[in-house]
C-alpha cells in the first residue's frame, strides 16, 4: 500500500512509534479522567475528542439535560486549556464575544482608546445554544474559527493557540432561534449528535450525581502537549486507498457527480473542507484506537459526523421522510 503524506517533515519510524505510544498513553488517561464525570456516551466523548485532537471545532446537538455543557467544561479541565463560556441569546452582540474599545483619560486629560478583550480570547470557547444569537453575532465567530485571529477597529488580533470552539445546539426549540449559515456549519469539523443515555449509564447518573459531593476531573495534559499530539496526527502517513476512499465519499455526497441517489435527494453537498476534515479525523481516530495509520473503516466510522452538517436535502426528499443520515448510510453501503 502506497503511503501518502503531507508536506510536514517526516519522522523516522522508531521516533514515530515512540511518539504515538506516548500520545496513546495520554489519550487513554484523558478518556479515563473524562469517564469519571461523563457516564456512558462513549461515542459522543470519542467524536468530540477526535475533533479537538484534529485541531478542529465541534457542534454538539442534543436535547437539554444530556451533559453537553458538562462535557465541554470537563474537556477544558482535562486538557489543561484556558476556557470561557458564552451563553448565546438573541440580544448578544458581536462585541460581547470579540471585545470592544473603551476611552481612557489620563491625569493630564489626554484621551486614548484601550481594547478590552472579549471571551473569544481563550483556548477553548464554549458557545452555548449558538443558534439563539442573531446571524450578525454568529458571524463574529467565522473569521476566528478559520483564520485564528479577529479584526477589531481595523487591527488584526491573534487568538491563543490552540483555539477550539465547542458549540451546543438544541434541535427541538426552534422558536426564537436562527439556523446557522452554511459557511459557519462548514467550519465545524464534526457535528456530534448527543443521544439519550442507555439504561445502565442513566442509573449511574442517578447514583453518582445526587449525593453530597460530585466527582470532578483533573488535568491530564496541558495546551503545549495537546499541540504536540495535534502535530503528530498531521504527520501520520495515510495510505492511497484511504485517500481514494475519502475523495470518493465526499464527491459521491455532492449532486452532479454521478451518484443517482445524491442527485435525486441532495440540493447541496460537502466541499473540499469536508475532505480535509475527514483526512485529519481518520488519522486522529487511528491514533485513538492505538494504530499508526488510518484505514478505510476509520473513514466510514466518522463519515456521518463529518458530512451530515455539510449537506442539505431537496424539498421532495424531505417530504418523503428522508434524512441526511439515511442518504449518507446509502452512500456508504454502496462503497
UniProtKB/TrEMBL annotation:
Top EC class of this enzyme:
hydrolase
- ATPase AAA-3 domain location is 57-190
Sample GO molecular function, one term: hydrolase activity
Q: Which residues form the ChlI/MoxR AAA lid domain?
A: 263-327
Q: Where is the signal peptide?
A: none
Q: Write the record's keywords in alphabetical order, separated by commas.
A: Hydrolase
Q: Which Pfam families match?
A: AAA_3, AAA_lid_2
- SUPFAM superfamilies given in the database record: P-loop containing nucleoside triphosphate hydrolases (SSF52540)
The record's listing under InterPro entries reads: ATPase_AAA-3, CbbQ/NirQ/NorQ/GpvN, ChlI/MoxR_AAA_lid, P-loop_NTPase
List its EC numbers.
3.6.3.-
Q: What protein name applies here?
A: MoxR-like ATPase
Could you read off the lineage of the organism from its UniProt record?
Bacteria, Pseudomonadati, Pseudomonadota, Alphaproteobacteria, Hyphomicrobiales
Amino acid at each position: 500500500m502506497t503511503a501518502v503524506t503531507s508536506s510536514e517533515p517526516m519522522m523516522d519510524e522508531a521516533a514515530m512509534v515512540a511518539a504515538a505510544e506516548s500520545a496513546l498513553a495520554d489519550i487513554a488517561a484523558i478518556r479515563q479522567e473524562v469517564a469519571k464525570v461523563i457516564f456512558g456516551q462513549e461515542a459522543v466523548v470519542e467524536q468530540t475528542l477526535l475533533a479537538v485532537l484534529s485541531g478542529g471545532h465541534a457542534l454538539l446537538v442534543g436535547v437539554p439535560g444530556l451533559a453537553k455543557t458538562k462535557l465541554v467544561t470537563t474537556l477544558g479541565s482535562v486538557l489543561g486549556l484556558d476556557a470561557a463560556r458564552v451563553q448565546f441569546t438573541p440580544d448578544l452582540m458581536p462585541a460581547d464575544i470579540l471585545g470592544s474599545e473603551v476611552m481612557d483619560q489620563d491625569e493630564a486629560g489626554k484621551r486614548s482608546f484601550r481594547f478590552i478583550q472579549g471571551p473569544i480570547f481563550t483556548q477553548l470557547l464554549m458557545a452555548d445554544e449558538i443558534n439563539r444569537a442573531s446571524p450578525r453575532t454568529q458571524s463574529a465567530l467565522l473569521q476566528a474559527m478559520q483564520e485564528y485571529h479577529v479584526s477589531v477597529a481595523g487591527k488584526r488580533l491573534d487568538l491563543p493557540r490552540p483555539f477550539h470552539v465547542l458549540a451546543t445546539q438544541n434541535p427541538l426549540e426552534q422558536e426564537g432561534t436562527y439556523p446557522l449559515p452554511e459557511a459557519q456549519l462548514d467550519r465545524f469539523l464534526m457535528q456530534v449528535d448527543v443521544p439519550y443515555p442507555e439504561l445502565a449509564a442513566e442509573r449511574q447518573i442517578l447514583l453518582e450525581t445526587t449525593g453530597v459531593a460530585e466527582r470532578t476531573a483533573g488535568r491530564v495534559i496541558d495546551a503545549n502537549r495537546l499541540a504536540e499530539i495535534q502535530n503528530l496526527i498531521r504527520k501520520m502517513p495515510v495510505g492511497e486507498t484511504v485517500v481514494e476512499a475519502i475523495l470518493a465519499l465526499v464527491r459521491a455526497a455532492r449532486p452532479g457527480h454521478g451518484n443517482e441517489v445524491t442527485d435525486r435527494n441532495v440540493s447541496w453537498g460537502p466541499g473540499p473542507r469536508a475532505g480535509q476534515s475527514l483526512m485529519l479525523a481518520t488519522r486522529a481516530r487511528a491514533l485513538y484506537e492505538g494504530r499508526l495509520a488510518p484505514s478505510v473503516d476509520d473513514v466510514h466510522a466518522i463519515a456521518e459526523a463529518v458530512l451530515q452538517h455539510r449537506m442539505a436535502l431537496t424539498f421532495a426528499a424531505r417530504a418523503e421522510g428522508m434524512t441526511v443520515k439515511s442518504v449518507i448510510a446509502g452512500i456508504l453501503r454502496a462503497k
